[in-house]
């Protein structure tokens, strides 16, 4: 049965005729690859079915055959893999459709079969993760409707190598454990995952683990240390169950540390827009504004499971509700950031950058003395990024030092390999100019008055704001102490609403920073 966190038991399988499985899901592009992997009876069953259904290689089909003990053979074709625009996500998409068809057929212990081929180096793991995406059960369902707490009893993973299948299962367990935490926090409603409840969830998730968790809840401390964040928290702080929490996580790998990561996640548990209230029905779905912080927690779960050596990671989850009320912050206020920068509020619906800027400043201070540091902000920040790239892609923007080390390109390669894709954007002088103070009163303008989707360079300018308001501008490539910094906008890639969060971008980040160290 699934563990408490909802992860199905993954069972290694070397024999496709193992009778413990009540259905077999095959994911591939051609029957020939079944033959190449000595799955002759399965290949023959598919070929016989093809005689009566010419769509067999275009749609998921259920074949009644004695080629497998259960007589349930689900053939889930990937479609072509060799066109210019085909990528490894073909495997994840086919696996998700295949496992859903197995569930419809009544399978409780399906076996996943993906014949080995050389089309994409990580296709096997991506296929497994595609299945697990379809098997995720939301936290609130697991808690409130026990009869629906799991979709399967177990998932078998077939491979023709015992060592490879065990390695694949270990990696899938680690990555999916992280994605479950990311989905649980990011997808749960604004009361179940109000800031105090997020803190409790995180503390429980990392109890007796390799991850150190520190929670700051004292309003006076938050006001003193993180004044921009505290402004956003001002209205919510009047309601005990909505009061903000700053959650810090830390991981220290074995051996000499040769790399240090600092991650800041936007954790807006609900975004009403504040005084600039979201009107016209666009408030629905704003509980997903915490997916950046959720990704930070999920990444730490992967760290805890895989325990990469030589790596230190410090993460911050800036959990806050952007409430509207008599005590909410308003446009025209001027607030001095932790970095000593006078910031004029332009629009209270740009609360995410406020919540992250001071935390980025704090981690920047830590990074000055860290070994080989690199900083990131992760946020569902703008509608503009969805307009620019569509709903399936994270955007990554490097500052000068990060650009010199080809950080965005390297993470993009990792994301392409593992089916967690990125598009690369550039922070330009226009973006800095956009946020420069417009009068003698302020040094930095937080935002304009138009939606990001209606603003030129609407997802690039917030990265410049974060650099300016946090003092990161003093650590560019021209400084005595340059610090690599990248902003990740996951407003599109975090997942659809209504729907299930994807867990992006933790697979790509883990592939680049964690897997090579394990």
What does this protein structure show overall?
Helix 6 runs antiparallel to helix 10. The longest helix is centred in the middle third of the chain and has 26 residues, at 162-187. The chain has helices at residues 31-36, 40-50, 89-104, 123-135, 139-144, 162-187, 195-205, 219-225, 227-236, 291-306, 351-367, 384-389, 400-404, 407-418, 429-435, 461-470, 506-513, and strands at residues 9-13, 23-28, 61-64, 72-77, 110-113, 154-158, 212-216, 245-252, 259-271, 311-322, 334-336, 342-344, 373-379, 394-398, 422-426, 444-445, 485-489. The protein folds into two domains: 9-160, Leucine Aminopeptidase, subunit E, domain 1; 188-517, Aminopeptidase. The chain is built from 17 helices and 17 strands. A hairpin with a 5-residue loop joins strand 11 and strand 12. An eight-stranded mixed β-sheet has the order 7-8-10-9-13-17-14-15, sandwiched between helices. Helix content is 36%, strand content 19%. The chain has 518 residues and is an alpha/beta fold.
């Amino acid at each position: 049965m699934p563990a408490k966190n909802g992860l199905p038991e993954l069972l290694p399988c070397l024999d496709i005729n193992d009778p413990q499985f009540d259905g077999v899901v095959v994911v591939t592009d051609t029957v020939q690859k079944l033959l190449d992997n000595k799955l002759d009876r399965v290949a023959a069953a598919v070929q016989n079915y093809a005689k009566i259904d010419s769509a067999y290689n275009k749609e998921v089909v259920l074949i009644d055959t004695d080629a497998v003990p259960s007589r349930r053979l689900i053939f889930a074709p990937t479609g072509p893999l060799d066109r210019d625009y085909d990528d490894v996500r073909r495997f994840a998409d086919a696996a998700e459709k295949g496992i859903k068809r197995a569930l419809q057929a009544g399978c409780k212990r399906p076996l996943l079969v993906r014949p080995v081929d050389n089309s994409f180096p990580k296709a096997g793991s991506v296929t497994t993760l595609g299945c697990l995406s379809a098997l995720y059960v939301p936290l609130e369902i697991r808690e409130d409707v026990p009869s629906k707490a799991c979709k399967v009893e177990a998932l078998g993973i077939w491979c023709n190598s015992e060592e490879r299948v065990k390695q694949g299962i270990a990696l899938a367990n680690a990555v999916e454990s992280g994605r479950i935490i990311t989905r649980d926090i990011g997808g749960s409603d604004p009361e179940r995952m109000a800031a105090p409840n997020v803190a409790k969830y995180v503390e429980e998730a990392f109890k007796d683990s390799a991850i150190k968790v520190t929670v700051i809840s004292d309003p006076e401390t938050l006001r003193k240390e993180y004044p921009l964040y505290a402004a956003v928290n001002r209205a919510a702080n009047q309601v005990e169950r909505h009061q903000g929490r700053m959650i810090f996580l830390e991981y220290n790998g074995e051996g000499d540390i040769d790399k240090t990561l600092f991650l800041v996640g936007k954790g807006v548990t609900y975004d009403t827009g504040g005084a600039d209230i979201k009107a016209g029905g666009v408030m629905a779905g704003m509980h997903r504004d915490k997916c950046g912080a959720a990704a930070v927690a999920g990444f730490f779960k992967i760290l805890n499971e895989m325990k990469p050596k030589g790596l230190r990671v410090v993460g911050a989850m800036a959990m806050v509700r952007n409430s509207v009320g008599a005590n909410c912050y308003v446009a025209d206020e001027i607030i001095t950031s932790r970095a000593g920068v006078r910031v004029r509020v332009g629009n209270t619906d740009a609360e995410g950058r406020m919540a992250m800027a001071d935390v980025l400043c704090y981690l920047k201070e830590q990074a000055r003395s860290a070994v080989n540091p690199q900083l990131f902000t992760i946020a569902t920040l703008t509608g503009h990024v969805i307009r620019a790239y569509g709903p399936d892609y994270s955007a990554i923007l490097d500052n000068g030092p990060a650009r010199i080390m080809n950080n965005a390109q390297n993470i993009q390669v990792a994301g392409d390999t593992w089916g967690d894709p990125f598009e690369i954007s550039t922070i330009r002088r226009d973006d800095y100019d956009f946020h420069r103070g417009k009068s003698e009163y302020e040094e930095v303008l937080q935002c304009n008055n138009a939606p990001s989707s209606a603003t030129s360079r609407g997802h690039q300018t917030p990265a410049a704001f974060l650099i300016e308001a946090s003092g990161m501008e003093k650590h560019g490539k021209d400084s005595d102490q340059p610090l690599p910094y990248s902003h990740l906008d996951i407003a599109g890639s975090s997942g659809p609403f209504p729907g299930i969060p994807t867990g992006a971008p933790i697979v790509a980040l883990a592939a680049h920073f964690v897997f090579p160290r394990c």
